[in-house]
Amino acid sequence: MQSIIPFIFVDKASEAIKLYEKAFHATLYDISYLHEYEEVEDTSLIAQSTLIIYGNHLFIGDAFQQPDPISDRSTIVIQVPSIDDVTHSFNILKEQGQVYYAPVELPWSKLGYSLKDAFGVVWMIYVVS
Question: For the whole model, what pTM was predicted?
């Protein structure tokens, strides 16, 4: 089966992983560190990790030597199974984030929101109607 898997690069990827585990009840599937592939002083830098979020994969790595240090032209969209999941993730991700719109009824969903989190990742989360 083919799929499209978003790969995000953030500063402090290990902290982002912990946040997303909490916000989305995600599971860390695997992780590899940059020092396994190249010589770097900081052995905690993540080259690639995989989170399982509602049965889907999200790759996360540290933004170490990325060609575009600041990019906000993409949005990660997650359809969650319940209104409780919408409010739970919002209450966690809004901390130190920039809310574009708080949970509200949408034309395609009973409840959804959009924000940029503390790591600069833009999310659009809504319940499947």
Answer: 0.87
CA distance 65 to 47: 11
> pLDDT by residue (tens digit) across 57-92?
999 999 887 666 666 668 899 999 999 999 999 999
**Calpha distance 10→59 (Å, rounded):** 11
Bridge partners for 52 per DSSP? 27, 57
In the block, residue with structure tokens 């989360």: 125
Contact yes or no for 112/85 (Cβ under 8 A): no
